Q: What sequence folds into this?
């Protein structure tokens, strides 16, 4: 799905749902405070037997998307902890390769846990993938005919929209990530400590 000219947007965010069988991507355009769908889809990798070739293909595809849509920032879904260590390792590699493609093009990266993305989109951190897709369809006014068969695409678009929402929060509401960051940002507030 690709239905908008990127020159029409003030900001563009790419969302990635990493995976070594199916990688989802979503491209979100923003004007002012209004987000809209530019494109979303999946990269199917299950036909490739070689894990390293899958990683290579992820790098190529993410690089291609960056070159095509020129995103300002990337939002990527963080791997969740599972019981299968091998699956976690493969997922982490897929995420790392997608991040390397963004870093190679100097695209800043934000990482979000699946629960945070679901909370941002549906108001429920335990929402199903179907609920996330339905809310995205409503929020972004996506026609049913444009909805993808694979929910990895909507998960990726949800990561991009979550990042847009996070960027809308005032700096204070986002807060520093650590005490060290707080001190660096506000040296005047910690003078006699």
A:
């Amino acid at each position: 799905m690709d239905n908008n000219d990127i020159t029409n947007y003030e900001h563009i965010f790419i969302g990635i749902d990493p995976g070594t069988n199916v990688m989802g991507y979503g491209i979100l355009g923003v004007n002012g405070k209004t987000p809209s769908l530019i494109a979303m889809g999946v990269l199917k990798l299950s036909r490739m037997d070689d894990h390293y070739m899958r990683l290579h293909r992820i790098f190529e595809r993410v690089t291609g998307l960056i070159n095509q849509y020129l995103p300002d920032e990337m939002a990527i879904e963080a791997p969740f902890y599972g019981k299968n260590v091998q699956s976690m390792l493969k997922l982490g590699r897929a995420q790392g390769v997608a991040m390397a493609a963004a870093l190679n093009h100097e695209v800043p990266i934000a990482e979000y846990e699946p629960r945070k993305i679901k909370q941002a989109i549906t108001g429920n951190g335990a929402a199903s993938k179907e609920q996330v897709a339905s809310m995205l369809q409503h929020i972004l006014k996506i026609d049913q005919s444009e909805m993808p068969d694979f929910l990895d695409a909507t998960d990726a678009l949800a990561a991009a929209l979550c990042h847009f929402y996070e960027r809308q929060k005032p700096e204070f509401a986002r807060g520093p990530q650590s005490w060290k960051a707080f001190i660096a940002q506000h040296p005047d507030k910690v003078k006699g400590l």
Strands lie at 11-17, 22-31, 34-44, 73-77, 109-112. The CA atoms of residues 36 and 84 lie 36 Å apart. Residues 6-190 form a domain with the Nucleotidyltransferase; domain 5 fold (CATH 3.30.420.10). DSSP finds seven helices and five strands in the chain.
